[in-house]
Amino acid sequence: MSLPDWQDKTLGTMKRAALWLIAVVGEGNTFTKEDVKKAFPGVSQADRRVRDLRDFGWQIDTHRDDASLGQHEQRFKKKGEPVWEPGKGSRPGTKVTHTRRREVLSSDGHFCRSCGITPGESYEGTYDAAQLDIARRSVQQPDGSEHVELVAECNRCRVGGVGRAADLNAILGAIQSLGGLERQALAGWVSADKREFSAVERLWADYRTLPSESRAKVRQVLGLAG
């Protein structure tokens, strides 16, 4: 099926932007805000409409997500929902107001619920400071239905986690199978909304990040064969 013409002004800016990314930019290639302005002359907030595509599964990276990109560059990594098709590209009632945004950030503790980073904190190994945003997460309910719920995420996780879903039903089922002590421990972590890891657990996490040769040296120190 042929795609609509991205220059068809009856489609709306976001749908045209999606088609422009496919037809002109191409997956894996870069573009700038200036390119967007040239493609949509006289259209206010065209760049914002490009960003809105991320809410529909489109992966568009900035220098915060890809260190190889310049300050003003973006890369069209992957297309998402065909927003130009009938019934696509519109989610009535899902606009996040400033009040609702503050409520979500507050209830989520003002840190990213995917990686735990806080606003202004630098990502490990970089000088890039994290910014919190609001993401939409599809959550499988116990009755089999799916609800789209709001969650705090940093920009990096929000872009990289497009399409991420959660299975509340599976989590609730797993809780029911826990023994008394395990359930009590989990309740304590949930109540505090954090978990302190022991020194051994932190060492295990560090060990898992090592290359094969270094892992072999750790096994040797621990008296393990192979």
Helix tally equals 9
How is the biggest beta sheet arranged? Answer: 3 strands, antiparallel
List the secondary-structure elements in sequence, H or E. Answer: HEHHEEHEEHEHHHH
Beta-strand percentage range? 5-15%
Proportion of residues in helical segments: 25-40%
Contiguous runs where pLDDT drops below 50 for at least 5 residues: none
Distance between the termini: 56 Å
Q: What is the alpha-carbon Rg in Å? A: 22 Å
Number of domains: 3
**Overall shape:** globular
Oligomeric state as shown? single chain
Q: What is the spatial order of strands in the main beta sheet?
A: 1-3-2
The residue-averaged pLDDT reads 87
Report the count of strand segments: 6
Instruction: Briefly note the structural class of the backbone.
Output: alpha+beta
Organism: Streptomyces kurssanovii
Protein name: HNH endonuclease
How are the elements arranged and paired?
Elements: H1 13-25, E1 30-32, H2 33-39, H3 46-52, E2 59-61, E3 73-78, H4 98-107, E4 132-140, E5 146-154, H5 155-160, E6 165-167, H6 168-176, H7 180-192, H8 199-208, H9 212-221
Parallel strand pairs: 4-6
Antiparallel strand pairs: 1-3, 2-3, 4-5
Provide structural commentary:
With 226 residues, this protein is of the alpha+beta class. It has three domains: 13-78; 98-192, no CATH class; 196-226. Helices cover 38% and strands 15% of the residues. The chain has nine helices and six strands; from the N terminus they run αβααββαββαβαααα. The chain has helices at residues 13-25, 33-39, 46-52, 98-107, 155-160, 168-176, 180-192, 199-208, 212-221; strands spanning 30-32, 59-61, 73-78, 132-140, 146-154, 165-167. The strands form two sheets. The protein has a three-stranded antiparallel sheet. A hairpin with a 5-residue loop joins strand 4 (132-140) and strand 5. The model has no long low-confidence stretch (mean pLDDT 87). This is HNH endonuclease.
